[in-house]
Structure formats: C-alpha cells, structure tokens
Amino acid sequence: MQRAGTGTGPPPGTAALDVLVLGGGPAGRALAAACAGHGLRTGLADPAPQRPWRATYCAWPEELPADLPGSAVAARPRARAVLPGGADRDLGAYAVLDTAGLRRHLDSRLGGVTVIAGRADAGDVRRHGDRYRVTLRPAGAAGAAGGRATAGTAGAGRAARHGDTTVVFAALVVDATGAPSRLRPAAGPAAEQTAYGVVVTEEAARPVVAPGEAVFMDWRSPAAEPAPGWSDWPTFLYAVPYGDGTVLLEETSLARRPGLPLAELQDRLVARLAGLGVPVPDDAPVERVRFPVDSPRAAAHPVAFGAATPLVHPATGFSVAPALQLAPAVAAVLARHLPADPGAAASAARALLWSPSARTVHRLRRHGLQTVLDLPARLVPGFFDAFFAGRSGRAFLTGRDDVPGTLAGMAGVFRAAPAPIKRRMLRSAVRFHPIR
After folding, report:
1. Are residues 286 and 323 in the same domain?
2. Whole-model pTM?
3. Which tops the pLDDT comparison, 262 or 129?
4. 353: part of which helix (H) or strand (E)?
C-alpha cells in the first residue's frame, strides 16, 4: 500500500502483497494457500512453477495432517530396520507420499494466490520503509543476468518488471526456499545427508523388500570387501515402495561433514545390489539426494518456514509432513496481524514455530546429530543397533515438541548401547554446545 508523503510504499500502479512466499515446494505451496484462505493478499515465487517435483517424500503417518487426501499418499507400508548383524526391528507404520498427488492437492488450493516465476537470493530481499522490496530473478540467473521473469495473474498483487527481473513489494516475506536456504548461504562445510538411488520393479526388489513393507535402514555392509577408494564411513540401504509396482533402492549416508560423495554412494549401491542379485536396467530412473541436516534456526525476519526454518529432522531428513501440518496454524497467526503490523506477525509466527518445547527438542536432536558425527566410523552401525533396540527410538524420530518422548528415546539408546559407545556419548554430551 502507498502511504501519502511517507515514501515507504510501492511505486504508483504497483499493488502490495500482504505475504510473499519464496519457494514453491510443498512447504511454500501449503503456506501460501493457507494465507490466501485467510484473506491475505498472497504471492508465491517459484523459479519454475510448472516443473514437476522429482523428490521422494516420506513421513511417519502420525505427523501428516488429518485432512490430507488419500490421493496424496502412494503407499502405507510397514517399516523395518535391519541391523549390522542382520536382525530385524519392526518400526511400525510408514507413509510414502504420492508426489504428483500431493502437488495436485496443493495446487488446487492456490486459486487466490499470485504465482510469480522467479527466485530470490541473499541480497534480493530488502527492507523498504515498513515493508519489503523483493527482486525476483529468472531461474538459472546469476545477478542481473538471465531471461524474462513473468508474473501470474491470479490474486490481488501485481509485480513491477525491471528488465529481466520482477520487483515485488510485500508487508511480510516468508523464506520457504528449502535447505540450504537461498537467503542464508551456509558458512563452512555442512553436515549433509547424501544418497544415490535407482527405481526398479517390485519383483526385482524382492530380495531386499517384501510387498507391503519398507526398509528404513539396512546397515549391513554393501560388499564383503570395500572397493579401493571407498571411505570408512558406513552407509545403509533405504528401500520404499511407490505404490505403483516400483520400488526406490537408495544407498544413503545419514550425516557426514562434508557429505559422502554421490559417486561413491553409486558404487556402493551397485556393489550391494549385485551381491543381492537385484537386476537394475540401464535405463532405471535415478534419484540423487544432498541436503544439510545441521542448519541453524533462522532469524525472525524474513519468516522462515519448512526446511529453511529448519524443520528438517537430522536423523531422517523429513520436513514435509511437519510443514504441511503447521501451515494452517502459521497462516492463522500471520492473518491476525497483517497487513497492519508485519513485525508482530513475524514474531508471532516464530513463537508458534519455536515454542520453548520445540526449541528444546531441536537442541536435543542436534545433540544426537553431533554424537553421530563424533563417533568413529566403526562404531556408527553399533549406535543404530542400540537406537533401534527398543520402541523408544521412534519417539526420537517424531514429535518436534515432544520433550519427554525425545528424552525417553535418547535414554533408551544409551541404555542399549555397548560400553565403547556409551563412553563416546558421554564425551559428546560434555562437549556439546547447543546449535541455534
């Protein structure tokens, strides 16, 4: 909104948005739709609004919103973990999301949202009086270079074009650009989860995973002898059904600083599947994964949401389900204060996302991550043997504000761990410095 005589509003002829969400993934789309549902003039900046999602999203069913339609869930297998010695642990119900179905569900709610093709990097989001001035660049552009950005026509906002960029004014900006956040480049090497996977038929995957089940972690060695050039860092096999007769088989490094290279993960997967007798066609679809699991909590401005805040669980990499569940509540608190008081809206959103109990769980999870990173490689599989020794392990994997459950899960790991790992866990606890 333009305010006469103040010079703080957008240029004449350019309507201001109440909320501009940066990032068109599941978190960004869910929050933008929820904000528009509360009557807020909402924009969604997506570098490629029509590009289909290729990632595999999974969740613990209890973390999914109750109103998520069945079309957004591809499979509900029973999950299990395979320990280094080959013993199985039942982990209970699991959910594999239908990526295309989830996208259709979220897109169906964007009718009141202005969708803008473009992205913002660090430095493109600037305060402009009592609101933000955001420069959106075309996908693939660096600096001022690149092609033409286009603005959508739905919703109340209108963007101003300047050459190859689009300029948007908004009372409040939400960073939903994922992990790592485009607005907060990482300082130094991050602890990363990396993975390399292939998609095969259920029949081909039968030596690994039976119908109706998923393998959350199989910690058995990928080969009898490591190949020349492999690091000593342990990896596990992850196997989930897509519900359409195909299965993702993925060699995964849970967390390492820096992340284990994808080329080595590919070599390990090839060796593992060859040893198991799993045929992989030359044209099998491939999934490559790399993202940080130790991002600090974001500052209050702009509001961060989804993996950017971060909601990423360092032991699973999951963040989609918590984002879908939290989006309506975050939109509701924003709507109480917008457009009149953006500062109060940002503070209220941060208070909702990071309550005292959520901050405590965040710190405890980061402590668990640091414990794993501090372990010698040879002890990591034994740590997860202890982790899955009892049902308490699941409590650590869910409930982002469940302090008693998280503590119970950590205590259960300590009780089940052998003496060398107990000593390392205690040493890590003494040295632990909370990560924001």
Report:
1. no
2. 0.89
3. 262
4. helix 342-353
